[in-house]
Amino acid sequence: MSRVQIAFQDNDESRYIVAAIEQDNTTAVVHYEPAMIRVENEGSLIINRDTVSEQIGMEWDVQSLHINLITLTGHIDEDDDYFKIMWNN
To answer: What InterPro entries has UniProt attached to this entry (predicted)?
Structure first.
């Protein structure tokens, strides 16, 4: 397998998203860089709407992820309930 990654602007909303990613992807590695938070994982990464909503403390729309998104590597599967990045389908 190969690593997938996603990077966000370093701001309050992104920190909640990254906390949710860490909760749902226990093997993910988070890199805090100047003005950016990059998350890597082997094979796939999933961002669940319910987990982010729980972290933020209010309903969260998966589409709002794109506001803070800088870049990603992998194939995308996106739904109202999740945003998944995979290396192989």
So the answer is: MOase_MmoB_DmpM, mOase_MmoB_DmpM_sf
For residue 4, which amino acid is it? V
**Cα R_g (the chain), whole angstroms:** 12
**Which is nearest to 36 in space by CA: 17, 63, 51?**
17
* Domain count across the chain: 1
Contact 85/38 with Cβ under 8 angstroms?
no
Whether 84 maps to a domain, the answer reads: no
To which residue do tokens 């990464």 refer?
45
CATH code of the domain containing 62:
3.90.56.10
* Domain extent for 57: 3-69
Q: HSE on the CB side for 10, CA within 13 Å?
A: 9
- 10-residue mean pLDDT series, the chain (89 residues): 92 97 98 97 97 97 96 96 90
C-alpha distance from residue 9 to each of 43, 48, 79, 87 (Å): 23, 19, 22, 23
